[in-house]
Amino acid sequence: MSEPPEDWWPEVRPDAARRLMAAAVESFASRGYHATTTRDIATAAGMSPAALYVHFPAKSAVLFAISRSGHERTLQMVRTTMAEHDDPVDAMRVLVERFVAWHAKRHMIARVVQHELDALTPEDHQVVLELRRATENLVRDLVTSGVDAGVFTVPDVRIAARAILSLGIDVARWYSPTSKPAPEVLGKQYAELVLSMLGHGVRRREPH
Amino acid sequence: MSEPPEDWWPEVRPDAARRLMAAAVESFASRGYHATTTRDIATAAGMSPAALYVHFPAKSAVLFAISRSGHERTLQMVRTTMAEHDDPVDAMRVLVERFVAWHAKRHMIARVVQHELDALTPEDHQVVLELRRATENLVRDLVTSGVDAGVFTVPDVRIAARAILSLGIDVARWYSPTSKPAPEVLGKQYAELVLSMLGHGVRRREPH
User: Fold this and answer.
1) pLDDT tens-digit map of A163-184
2) List of domains in chain A
3) Which chain A residues have a beta carbon less than 8 Å from that of B27?
4) Is the pLDDT of residue B206 over 50?
């Protein structure tokens, strides 16, 4: 179910930078950020330590590139989904499907990004926190628009938005390449649970 | 909102062992398990490295003691809650309130336990996985009993149980001593969201 590492960052150029980021994810995941050296990353990517410095000034810059890319793509996905769907129920369903499938497929990256937030420099951390806030605000707006339209009922919009994101993010903690169901199926099941959580009455029952 | 470390493991004796566990949580949380030495832990607890070995044979034994205690107490809480409440709705409400408040209050321990699962020895890891499975099975049984009683409607009992636990566990990821609302209030709000997620129609609205 996992994608090959070279597909993780289609936007990153050149290939060498992408290969270093993939090698870093695997090293950070297996031995932790602090115990990983730039030499470990370079070696895992089949390069010399000097070659790493051509692309990244420091180990934390590799971590930041991984973290920023993940958060930017999530924000972009949420924006795109909301632009594609006027109906809050449709938008929420598709958003959760995509968000959950994303975290299931890229569970290794997401885990590294979560665990090592504190290892970012304060400036880099700030960038990531702002991307998170932007994503959370959009989800909150979507819950609010559903409440305003009378299709969602929640005790607290802020807590509901937090819970929706939480459900998706936590998938990365427990999902593994042998987990069932497949990321897209899990996404559909979670979307149904979330709509129900938001007090949306219509419950679809589809075979899966 | 956080409890003082000495209250984290009321069942652990002697005090020195409890102090070492608290020092280990803070060290693992701040610099990661791999970068922490037994000397760091002993020093943080105001002891000599030799004194640590009186209580724990190795660094991983401290981690295991922390992890086992957390998982045992969670399992015990779920068991107690289910024994106290015959009604599946009441049992689920109280279970989520307690589970969420627990993860909010002890977010630092819960984070260490989650992040460093892979650092346990295979035997210790197995013990923890079995405690988790036992907890998850109880939650699944509770969802099933609600479905059988006609008060819950879910597309998939296993996925619903996973989502309930996931929501609670992920609280430890984002909760901090400055977070709002207070752990118990968050627990009540999440309980309401979970009952709704489980298709339970009655929605209580209480001022908070």
Assistant:
1) 999 999 999 999 999 999 999 9
2) 59-197 (1.10.357.10)
3) none
4) no
